[in-house]
Amino acid sequence: MPVPNDPRLVTLGGSARAAVPAWAQQSTPVAPDTDVDVTLVLRRRSALPAETGATPMSPEEFADRHGADPADLDLVTAEATRLGAQVVTVHAGARLVRLRGTAAVLTGIFGTGLRVVTRTDPDGAEITHRYRSGELSVPEAWHGVVTAVLGLDDRPQARSRIAHPSAVSVSYTPPQLGQIYRYPPNTDGAGQTIAIIELGGGYDQRDLDTYFSRLGLPSPSVSAVGVDGATNVPGRDPQGADGEVMLDIEVVGGLAPACRIVVYFAPNTDAGFLDAVAQAAHATPTPAAISISWGASEDSWTGQARTALDGAMADAVALGVTVTAAAGDDGSNDQGNDGRAHVDFPASSPHALACGGTRLEADPATGAVSAETVWNNGSGGGATGGGVSRTFDLPAWQAGSGVPAGTGAGGRVGRGVPDVAAVADPATGYQVRVNGSDTVIGGTSAVAPLWAALVARLNQATGRPLGLPQPALYARTAAGAVAHGFRDITSGSNGAYRAGPGWDPCTGLGVPVGTELLTALTQPPSSA
Predict the structure, then answer these.
(1) What secondary structure, in 3-state letters, does 308-333 show?
(2) Bridge partners of 117?
(3) Residue whose C-alpha is closest to residue 236's, from 204, 211, 278, 272
(4) Is the pLDDT of residue 406 over 50?
(5) Separation of alpha carbons 133 and 154, rounded Å
(6) Distances 232 to 195, 225, 266, 272, 448 between C-alpha atoms, Å
(7) Helix (H) or strand (E) segment spanning residue 370
(8) Are the C-beta atoms of 86 and 99 separated by less than 8 Å?
(9) Residue 527's pLDDT band (boundaries 50, 70, 90)?
(10) What is the C-alpha separation between 232 and 389, in angstroms, rounded?
(11) Do residues 298 and 390 lie in contact, with contact meaning Cβ atoms separated by under 8 Å?
(12) Among candidates 248, 218, 262, which has minimal Cα distance to 441?
């Protein structure tokens, strides 16, 4: 069916995807009458200031200054309706417009074709999804107004970052890790909200009640928010997404038991990921932290999707939110097959606190640490992600930390990953409960909620949101020196990079010493 009043189209930069690959087992055109939902990202009314997050904005102030211009919203929604699409939702602050239309209408509006592809993912599972190739276009009237069109292609965008052990040498409950990493006393996350992003799986309240009862803690307040039709659905993937969801909640609830936890469930697509983060960032009340334990090599994203999600995290920072993101579980190549080093996104965003992983040998009863090194269990065994971004420039706050030129990057020095670390090796992992069974799980997935819980307790202790913490964290140290509030990790490798004194591309600034970190953050750099 042709699009009524066919518009003149212009190319949308950053939207290119490769042709349908030869390994696809099946590829057929999407039926023209199939309903498809897409998310449009609009330009900002004005650019964010360079010092975003220094003084958090209210959601109302943010929307008025940096949300979508009402004239742009009117233009886009009116033209979409004229062309036969339905406007589902509009979020002015987040600059998002959600459209629904038949495949025939939307492919006409955006100048593309859609096919249904069946393929086997790297984990061996067979998946079926819509697929497009080439660049997208937008109506000429939207040129410069619409900056991204996501969701036409609904391939899985990210992977969870949990890891299962082949054998366990020692394991820890979250409260034991709070003791080991010396979380500030007399804090429990009261008055704080932590948002958790999930792209699959679900949680069972009965398991949570049992788990926290055994820890001697009350069950935290946990609520689920569905995004783009996704819901809390436990029991379908106990070894994967369910384990991710339960790990995230149990780590946050075990380390910040008085905080409010809101879990945002979204489809595992570029549109779903963006919509979940945007909804969490702009929620009321504004969360202390958004914990993200999903990601993929930054090279596996389209430019428009990567920019859009980075923009949503920039929104979060401007609103006073700290975004913690897992750095990946596949070492310095991040499942790349080109022989080069890669970093994980969204951890590589300069608006995320990137969380790497260690192997921790400690006494769970006393908190005494005998050894902590870079997590690397060899080929196929998992290792912390980390390295140097080829997409994001070196942030000003990281310029003095000694970030090297990226391996295979032609001498370019980009954003260094990770910023911080904590235990991630599943052989020295986290005691959790999933689908009625007690087990041990690791992965940098656990480090993101561990740091989110620490952020909530720091916010509680200081009475103010931490927002983007890196300017304060990096300002207090020089290249090769131990950062205030951290215990340096100097032994081990994630493949292309080795740990050493000060910041490194394996464990960042190191693992937290929570009490010292609180002191450092409440004193001016000269006296810390």
Answers:
(1) HHHHHHHHHHHCCCEEEEECCCEHHH
(2) 27, 129
(3) 204
(4) yes
(5) 12
(6) 14, 8, 9, 14, 20
(7) strand 369-374
(8) yes
(9) very low
(10) 33
(11) yes
(12) 248
First to last CA, the chain: 67
DSSP letters for 34-84: -EEEEEEEEPPSSPPPTTTTSSPPPHHHHHHHHS--HHHHHHHHHHHHHTT
Neighbours of 110 (CB within 10 A): 25
* pLDDT tens, position by position, 163-209: 888 889 999 999 999 999 999 999 999 999 999 999 999 999 999 99
Three-class SS state of 242: helix
Both tokens assigned to 176: 């034991």
Nearest-5° Cα angle at 303, 298 to 307: 85
Question: What residue type is assigned to position 125 of the chain?
Answer: A
Could you give the CA distance from residue 370 to residue 360 in angstroms, rounded to a whole number?
A: 8
The candidate with the shortest Cα–Cα distance to 292, out of 161, 400, 171, is 161
Residue that is written with structure tokens 């300017």 in the block: 471
Cα–chain center distance at 319: 17
**DSSP symbols for 390-452:** EEEEPPGGGTTTTPPPPTTTTT--EEEE-SEEEE--GGG-EEEEETTEEEEEBSHHHHHHHHH
Give yes or no for a contact between 80 and 3, defined as CB atoms under 8 angstroms apart. no
Specify the residue for token string 């001016």. Answer: 524
User: 3-class secondary structure for 90-110?
Assistant: EECCCCEEEEEEEHHHHHHHH
> Exposed, middle or buried, 138 (CB in 10 Å: 0-12/13-18/19+)?
buried
User: CA-to-CA distance for 149 and 136, rounded, in angstroms?
Assistant: 8
Tokens of 356: 């790497």
Tokens in use for 184? 């500030």
Please, are residues 157 and 270 in contact by the beta-carbon 8 Å criterion?
yes
CB of 418 within 8 A of CB of 448?
A: no
Could you tell me the two tokens for 215? 């820890």
List the catalytic residues. 244, 248, 445
Do residues 344 and 443 touch, judged by C-beta distance below 8 A? Answer: no
* Tokens found for residue 405: 């030129």
3-state SS, residue 179: helix
C-alpha 108/C-alpha 86 separation (Å) is 14
Residues 292 and 316 sit within 8 Å (Cβ to Cβ): no
pLDDT tens column, 446-492 = 999 999 999 999 999 999 999 999 999 998 788 889 999 999 999 99
User: Quick one: which of 271, 275, 27, 18 has its CA closest to 157?
Assistant: 271
CA torsion 67-73-75-76 (nearest 10°) is 110
Half-sphere exposure of 39 toward its Cβ, with a 13 Å CA cutoff? 26
Percent with pLDDT over 70 in the chain: 95
Q: Which residue's entry shows tokens 């965008």? A: 157
The angle formed by the CA atoms of residues 188, 192 and 194, to the nearest 5 degrees, is 100
